[in-house]
Design goal:
With 580 residues, the chain is of the alpha+beta class. It has helices at residues 15-18, 25-35, 39-67, 97-106, 154-164, 174-177, 201-204, 212-215, 280-289, 327-336, 339-346, 375-385, 415-430, 442-450, 471-474, 492-503, 507-524, and strands spanning 69-73, 77-83, 111-113, 119-121, 124-129, 135-140, 181-186, 189-193, 238-245, 251-258, 271-277, 295-296, 303-307, 310-316, 351-353, 389-390, 397-398, 406-412, 434-440, 457-463, 527-538, 567-571. The protein is 30% helix and 21% strand. It is globular and about 120 Å long.
Length: 580
């Protein structure tokens, strides 16, 4: 039988047909043209072609680089040096700077500290405040977890607050929470009722939250001895994964790993290691040798600085006699102190000279300082104005009652304070005021000198809490121990402003009130305000994202630790990650 012809449309396609070479006419013509050229011409074409290809690739890469952006990448570690041994890694019992450092990294509160001294919600999704300023209602974020994977609810918040205000625990947080009623309205809603309006209450809600299920059966007496003090279960950006001890049982190292359940998103750093040293000299040596990457209180070429909310001053005890009774006398003693010289020569420039009780970095204008070019002559003129007469033979000053102007200046035997006191002593001697310097250890100074107000002039430092609340230091109701008004200062206008400032919520009004408080106290010269130090934090030059605002406690340096990074990657703009 004769085979039927197969049409072209139905002809079976062979592999050679399936993979038939396809050509673009332009390139086919170019190829034929090049083949007809001489070997020299072909070489020229090859070189030119290579240049065109390389130029195109470079251009594309440059275009890509100009369009793509760099963003933080996960990975890397940081090794931090600290002084002392941690004991209470617990938001209710943390005492030392080391305790607070580890607590800040392993626990989180309803609110947290963000850049530029702002407060940002962490565990809280939102909050509201009643019109009378006494009731705060917080709604927690959904699906919050502790570092062991257990759920965090409003009951945990209530448990933490009730434990803080339990006098039997003797928590340093007791004063912040005394009288505050905490109630869980449901699993995600907690309501706080304050005994009186208090504008700084939101700062108190940064306290870390304890897991009630793990702590509820631990008595107040047993709290400090729980294993959870060493290996905490919290909800902070990092989780303790290893604790190293030496042969004596002393903790020498902590290893913390990124917490994937952290409410603001997993930190970029994989780990943060803490190595503990006995003193500043050992810490400095470790940093210099490269054993640690970072440490605070150690200047270096990569050091970051921020205002420290501390105020160092000579507090004049006006209850010890008539020596400081006249304003001109107190002003003279203040004018005589060369603050610029102290900051430059004694403190290496890591401080701001001040002339009022508000620390540097609080956002209000600095008060004018006495002239450094004429401070000695100006101070002596003020003493004459106060009725003192100078003896030409020994340069001492006496008043009409025959009293000699001489001062006993007391301070702590801490080297930095003693050096500062010696500088003040030298400046007062320059104007003819004989000054005797006495030093005591910190414990004796607190119990035997400060509390009973047994001093004439005291060089000491004030630590101002978040929000610049000065009530405890300068209100007339705080003149007796345990109050902190250690000069006996009393000014009804200042008292009224201090009370108003505590309840004022409008930021602009608060700044105006703080300025008035600063000016009024400064004008009364109850103390010789000298300097507000800088917080110094040395970090590796490749550590990015560190934002230091005004520092109250050293642990504040970790306010933005979840966004610190040492690695980056390039991505297209539309692929940028968004943090919680």
């Amino acid at each position: 039988m004769e085979e039927e012809p197969i049409s072209e449309l139905h002809r079976e396609k062979t592999p050679s047909m399936l993979f038939k070479k396809r050509t673009i006419p332009f390139f086919a013509e170019l190829e034929r043209y090049i083949r007809t050229r001489s070997a020299g011409d072909q070489l020229i074409f090859l070189i030119l072609g290579t240049i065109v290809v390389l130029t195109s690739v470079i251009g594309i890469l440059k275009l890509q680089a100009s369009v793509m952006v760099s963003e933080p990448a996960y990975g890397g570690s940081l090794t931090e040096g600290d002084i002392g041994e941690p004991r209470f890694v617990n938001p209710l019992l943390a005492i030392s700077d080391t305790d607070h450092d580890l607590t800040t990294l392993t626990y989180a509160g309803l609110m947290g500290e963000g850049p530029n001294n702002t407060l940002v919600p962490v565990l809280a999704q939102s909050y509201s405040v009643s019109p009378d300023g006494k009731t705060y209602t917080f709604i927690l974020k959904k699906n919050l977890l502790f570092s062991d994977g257990s759920p965090l609810t409003a009951n945990d918040v209530v448990f933490t607050v009730q434990k803080a205000e339990n006098a039997a625990l003797k928590s340093p947080q007791f004063a912040n929470w005394q009288g505050v009623q905490a109630v869980a309205l449901d699993s995600r809603t907690v309501r706080f009722t304050l005994p009186a309006p208090y504008a700084e209450f939101l700062y108190d809600t940064t306290i870390g939250i304890l897991p009630a299920t793990l702590w509820k059966n631990v008595t107040s007496a047993a709290f400090p001895f729980s294993n959870l003090e060493t290996i905490p279960v919290g909800e902070g950006p990092f989780v303790v994964t290893n604790v190293t001890r030496n042969s004596n049982g002393t903790v020498t190292r902590y290893t913390l790993s990124a917490n994937p359940h952290y409410a603001l998103g997993r930190p970029y750093l994989d780990t943060v290691n803490f190595i503990f040293y006995p003193d500043q000299a050992s810490l400095q040596e470790a940093f210099s040798s490269g054993a640690i990457d970072s440490a605070y209180g150690i200047p270096s070429k990569n050091a970051l600085t921020a205002p420290y909310s501390h105020v160092f001053a000579v507090f004049l005890n006006q209850t010890t006699g008539n020596m400081f009774s006249k304003l001109s006398t107190r002003e003279a003693l203040s004018t005589a102190v060369n603050r610029d010289s102290i900051v430059k020569n004694l403190l290496g420039g890591y401080a701001t000279p001040i002339n009022g009780p508000v620390p540097s970095g609080s956002g209000i204008p600095d008060l004018p300082l006495p002239s450094t070019s004429s401070n000695v002559s100006d101070a002596m003129a003020l003493l004459k104005q106060a009725g003192w007469k100078q003896n030409t033979s020994n340069q001492s000053w006496t008043n009409a009652a025959g009293e000699t102007l001489s001062i006993t200046l007391t301070t702590s035997n801490v080297p930095e304070l003693q050096a500062l006191a010696e500088a003040v002593q030298s400046d007062w001697e320059k104007i003819g005021v004989h000054t005797t310097l006495t030093v005591d250890d910190p414990g004796t100074l607190s119990e035997m000198v400060i509390q009973p107000r047994a001093y004439q002039a005291l060089l000491f430092g004030m630590v101002i809490d978040k929000g610049d609340d000065l009530y405890d230091f300068w209100n007339s109701k705080e003149v007796t121990a345990p109050g902190l008004n250690i000069t006996g200062y009393s000014n009804s206008a200042v008292d009224a402003l201090l009370v108003k400032f505590r309840t004022e919520t409008d930021p602009h009004a608060r700044m105006q009130e703080l300025m008035q408080i600063n000016q009024l106290i400064s004008a009364d010269y109850p103390a010789i305000f000298i300097e507000s130090p800088d917080f110094v934090y040395s970090v590796p030059n490749d550590l990015k994202g560190v934002i230091l605002s005004q520092i109250t406690a050293p642990s504040d340096r970790f306010a933005t630790v979840a966004t610190w990074y040492r690695r980056t990657e390039s991505v297209w703009p539309f692929l940028l990650r968004e943090r919680s």
